[in-house]
Design a protein that fits this description.
Helices cover 48% and strands 18% of the residues. By secondary structure, the chain is α+β, with helices and mostly antiparallel strands. It folds into two domains: 115 residues, Roll (CBS-domain); 33 residues. It has a three-stranded mixed beta sheet with strand order 1-2-3. The two termini are 45 Å apart.
Length: 160
């Protein structure tokens, strides 16, 4: 499965913030929208990511307050990125390797969306559920003659 399939399923909603925005405004947006990250843009280009991890670290450094900090001083200015053609197995390895929960999806210099660790986990679970249903359907539709032979072989007695 490719990243493009996740983006299609998620839809096109994308939340961004400017480098020069007050951190307090960014945190308010994250709370209002119930999201864990904002893509940081500077003159139409990806400049970084602001996630709850960076916010918490900044608040701790600042004695429990966001104060007058701006996004640029807090953001991750070198986030992991992928393309719509990146395979999900590679995305999982990348995210696990860097403990990244959010990853911008880029086509050259154009931001296509953001995928989260949740999105990746959901794809894995959905895929496993589908495979499980297919295996159960296959077993349920097992031909009677083959099933009798398989049951006999398992019990050690000759087939009737």
């Amino acid at each position: 499965m490719k990243v493009s399939q996740i983006l299609t399923a998620k839809g096109g909603t994308l939340f961004t913030v400017s480098c020069e925005s007050p951190l307090a405004e960014a945190v308010q947006t994250m709370a209002d929208k119930d999201i864990g990250s904002l893509v940081v843009m500077d003159h139409g280009e990806l400049a970084g990511m602001l996630t709850f991890r960076e916010v918490i670290q900044a608040v701790v450094r600042n004695g429990g307050s966001v104060g007058t900090m701006i996004v640029r001083t807090v953001m991750d200015d070198s986030p992991l990125t992928c393309t719509p053609d990146t395979d999900m197995d590679e995305v999982r390895r990348m995210m696990l390797g860097r403990h990244a929960r959010y990853m911008p999806v880029m086509t050259q210099r154009t931001l296509m969306g953001v995928i989260s660790f949740y999105d990746v986990a959901k794809v894995v679970v959905d895929s496993q559920d589908f495979e499980n249903r297919m295996l159960k359907a296959y077993i349920r539709d097992w031909p009677a003659e083959e099933q009798t032979q398989a049951e006999s072989a398992a019990s050690g007695s000759p087939a009737a």
